[in-house]
Specification:
This protein is an alpha/beta fold. The chain folds into 2 domains: about 170 residues, Periplasmic binding protein-like II (D-Maltodextrin-Binding Protein, domain 2, 3-Layer(aba) Sandwich); about 90 residues, D-Maltodextrin-Binding Protein, domain 2. It is about 40% helix and about 20% strand. Strands 1, 2, 3, 4, 5, 11 and 12 form a 7-stranded mixed β-sheet that branches. A 5-stranded mixed β-sheet has the order 8-7-9-6-10. Helix 1 crosses helix 8 and helix 4 packs across helix 7.
Length: about 280
């Protein structure tokens, strides 16, 4: 009788950047003795699953990390961060943000980085509703909200729906901090065996290498999970959110994390908070 393989559950978003990253593993094109199971959910559902410690490996917002850092470490591969990647504040009609505090704002989740940024720059706009990210544009069109904070594919298509850009929250953050903006990343439970954490990190990097080498083949897979189905939108999404920081957190990426988490009250320590050892030796 053969040896049973280790079962590892990975919770991720269905967004093109995450599916692209994990494509080699989802398609079983990367050899591994692990039995990987993938679970897909929107980012705020993932944040709540992380709060409940539901999965050993999970995608979540960096704004959530101070709440989960006792349970999880940041996996050094898989992050969405950089310059020009931030959430966009849009409106369905002209609005004066400085003079009006009664505007209703739709946001993609209470624990998201998008909400943190919005609250940081527009704390006086307190009438907020939280929706799955793909429901924000429809809510604006129906008049259920005056403003919306868009992430993922919505950033690339809002003008097609007659919506107007009010502010680029990522740009505001970059101008203030001079650092790349950390949006979200993959987190792995601290109590996982070191050799297993190292193997998972290695598999993530091999999967990302596979994705870049087979990019054109991946459109059907990305389309299967995406909210916006146009090829150009999907690959614009990938090219925006998948970069050198996705492959490895180092240099400016670590400084960006330090600055961001400091604003959330957490002193970032790479040795304590980051898992970056593929050989399993911390």
């Amino acid at each position: 009788m053969g040896v049973l393989s280790k079962r590892v559950e990975i919770a991720t978003s269905p967004c093109p950047n995450d599916v692209f990253l994990l494509s080699g593993l989802i398609l079983k094109r990367i050899p591994t003795s692990l039995n990987l199971e993938f679970h897909f959910a929107d980012i705020e559902t993932l944040n709540n699953l992380a709060l409940s410690k539901s999965y050993p490996v999970i995608k979540a917002s960096f704004a959530l990390y101070p709440r989960i850092e006792e349970t999880y470490q940041i996996l050094a591969c898989g992050s969405a961060m950089g310059y020009g990647v931030g959430p966009l504040l849009v409106s369905r009609k002209k609005a004066n943000l400085a003079e009006s505090s009664c505007l209703k704002v739709a946001l993609p989740g209470r624990f998201t980085t998008a909400h943190f940024l919005f609250d940081h720059f527009y704390p006086h706009l307190t009438e907020r509703i939280f929706l799955p990210y793909h429901q924000i544009i429809p809510a604006l069109i129906k008049g259920e909200a005056d403003l919306g904070v868009l992430i993922h594919e919505g950033r690339f298509v809002f003008a097609q729906y007659g919506l107007t850009l009010v502010a680029d929250l990522g740009k505001l953050w970059e101008e203030k901090t001079k650092a790349p903006l950390p949006l979200g990343g993959f987190f792995i439970k601290r109590d996982y065996p070191p050799h297993l954490k190292g193997e998972i990190l290695s598999l993530f990097r091999k999967s990302l290498d596979f994705a870049w080498e087979h990019k054109e083949e991946l459109y059907p897979l990305l389309k299967k999970y995406a909210q916006e189905l146009e090829r150009e939108v999907i690959f614009s999404h990938v090219e925006t959110y998948v970069n050198n920081y996705t492959y490895r957190l180092e240099g400016k990426a670590l400084e960006g994390l330090r600055i961001f988490l400091k604003h959330l009250g957490l002193a970032f320590d790479p040795q304590l908070h980051l898992w970056e050892c593929e050989d399993g030796i911390p």
